[in-house]
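Hi all, a correction to my earlier message: I attached the wrong file for TRI36 ligase. Here's the right sequence:
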Amino acid sequence: KVAIKGIERELICPACKELFTHPLILPCQHNICHKCVKEILFAFEDSFADGGSESSNQSSPRIRISASSMDRIDRINRSGRKRNSLTPRSTLFPCPSCQRDIDLGERGINGLFRNFTLETIVERYRQAARAAIAIMCDFCKPPPQESTKSCMDCSASYCNECFKIHHPWGTVKAQHEYVGPTTNFRPKILMCPEHEMERVNMYCEICRRPVCHLCKLGGGHANHRVTTMSTAYKTLKEKLSKDIEYLISKESQVKAHITQLDLLLKEAECNSERAKQEASQSFEKLYHVLEEKKSAALRAIETSKNIRLEKLQTQVEEYQGLLENNGLVGYAQEVLKETDPSCFVQTAKQLHVRIQKATESLRSFRPAAETTFEDFVVDTAKQEDILGDLSFHSNGLEIPEINEEQSRMYNKALISWECPGKTDSADIYVLEYHKLNKEEESVTWQKTEVCGKSKVLSDLDDDSSYAFRVRGYKGSICSPWSREVIMRTPPAPVFNFLFDDKCGYNNEHLQLNPRRTSVESRAGFPLLLGSERLQVGCYTTLDYIIGDTGIAKGKHFWAFSVEAYSYLVKVGVVPSNKIQKLFHNTHDVTSPRYEQDSGHDSGSEDAFFDSSQPCTLVTLGMKKFFIPATPAAPKDPASRILPLPSCLGICLDCDRGRVGFYDAGRMKCLYECEVDCSGLMYPAFALMGGAAVHLEEAVTAKYREYHDDI
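and the right structure:
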C-alpha cells in the first residue's frame, strides 16, 4: 500500500495551493475546490468591470491566477458587470491546471460533479497528518464532548449520549448508517447535477462523465456512446489496476530516473551559475564600452568648451580695449599727445593699422566661437533599438516563417505563420508590424503577443502597405526575426453583401448555396434547348445576378474568386435604374467571329458591345482576364489578355465616379474606368456555361481571440 503521506502533491488544489475542500470535476477532468471556482469567477467579473487592471487580480488572496490566465480575460468575457449576489454570473474561466477555457454552461457550478472519492482520500490524509485530532459532537451543549461516531444519513457527528437521543431505538433513524468520527459526508447515491431527482446509472464515453437516463434520452448526451455504470466501473478499474501494477513493476526504473533527475538538477544549478557569470561578463563588456564612449564624448565636449571660451574671452578683451581711456583707444589717445612729428609718425603708422582693423571688426561684428553644441549630440536611437532587442538566442529554437498563402488582407488582416520543422517549440510568439511610409525616417514597430500561430489585426489603414515579422519565445530565449513580409490593405473599406435570390434570379440556370455566398452556372440541358435554333452567329443570353445591398455614396471594396473551369463570367456594377434593362437584355454576347448579315468581322463588335451594355462589366473566363477595348487600351488584343488572379476585387468610388478591378491577392489595379453613379449602385455578376463565383469571406477572430463582431 502507498503511504498516505506520500501523495500530498495529488491532493493540492491548483488554484489555492491547499488541500482540496469539496473538490469539483471540471469538463477537462481536472479537480478544483468548490470555493475556488466561485472565487475565480468572481475575480474575473471584477476584472472585466475594472478593465482588467492588475489590482483586480488581488480581489481574493486565496486564489492565485496565473498571468497568462489574466491576459486572456478580455478574450473570454466582456460582460463588465459587478457581482451583486452570492452566485457568480460568469460561467467562463481558464482551468488553473491546463489553461483550457472552461464553459460551465447555463447551470454553472451546479452542473459539476463533486469528486467524493478524492474528498475521502483528502480526509484520510488530513487525519493522518494531524494525528487524528478529535472531532467534537455537533449537538452537545457547551462545552461539546468528543464525538464517537458520525451519521452518514444525517451528515453530523455525535457523542454516545447525543447519538442515543437523536437515534432512538425502534425508529427509522436507528437504521441510519454510522461510521467513525469524520468530517467527510458523502451521499449514498450519486445524483445527476442536470436532473437533480435522477441518479446516475450510465457513463458517457465521449464526455467521460456519469449521466442519467434523461441525459441520454433528450439531453446533451442523446447521440453519445454510453455504457452501464457497472461496465464502466469494471473496465476503468481493470485498466487503472493494470496501469498501477505496471508502474509498480517499474519501480527500479523510476528510481533510476529519479537519480538521473537529481544529477540533472545539480547540473542545471551549476550551468545556470555559469550562464549568469557569462551574462554578467557580457554586460560588463557593454558597460566598459559605454564608459569609454562616455568619457571620450565628455572629453571632446570639454576640450571644445575650453577652446570656445578662450576665443570669446580674447574677443571680450579686444572690445574692452575699444572703450575710451582703456586699452587700444587709451593708448592711441596718449600717442596723439606726441608733438614731435618724426616720433609720432614712427608710432602712429602701426597704431593706425590696428585702429582700422578694430573699426572693421566693429562694423561686422561676429562672435569668435559658436555657443551651441549641436555637433556633439549623441544619436543613440539605433543602439537603443538593438539593446531593447537584446535577449538570449538559441539555435534550438526554430525561426518561424510567415505563410503568405494562408495570410489574408481583407476587412481585417489575418497573419499566419509556421515553423519549418512543423514543431511548436516556442511558448509564445511576438508579431510586429509597421506601416510603410517613405516620409518617416525612423520606423516604429507595433507589437502584439500571440499564443497560437495566427493573429487577426483590425487597426490597419486602408490602401496602405505594411511590413510584418514574427519571432518565437521560449522562456527568456527567443528566435531570430522571421523574414519581413509586405502586404497591402484594400483600397477602401470592405463592402459586405450576399447574392440576391429574388431580383431577376434565374433558378433554372443558376444555383446558390444556402448561405448565398456562392453562385454556379451549369452548362446543361436548358442551354442546349436555347441553342437549338442557332445556325450562324451566336446571341446567347447571360444569366445575371446582383448583390442584395446597394451603394449610395463613398468608396467601397469587395472581393471574390472565379473557379478555374469557368467558361465565361462578367463582373462589375449596375445602377438601380438599369437593373430591369439588364435582366431583359437579350443580346449580351456576340459571335467571336462574324455577326450574321453584318458584312464585317468582329472588329466593330467591340463598339457595339461597349455601347449596348446597361452596366459596367469586365469579362473573365478560361483562366483569363480581358481588359475592355477602349481608346486608352493597348491596340494589340493579346496585350489586353491577362492571367486570371486567384482572387479578384472591385473598388467603387461613388464620389469620383470611377470603378477599379483589382488583383485582390496583391491589391494591384488591373483596369479602371469611369462609371455613372447617379443612382444606387449594385454589384453585378453574369455567368454562361459552366462557371462559378464565390464571394470572399470576411476575416473573423480565430480560436482564443476575442473580436468585437462576436
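Sorry for the mix-up. Residues 51-62, 64-86, 586-612, 702-710 have pLDDT under 50 and may be disordered.
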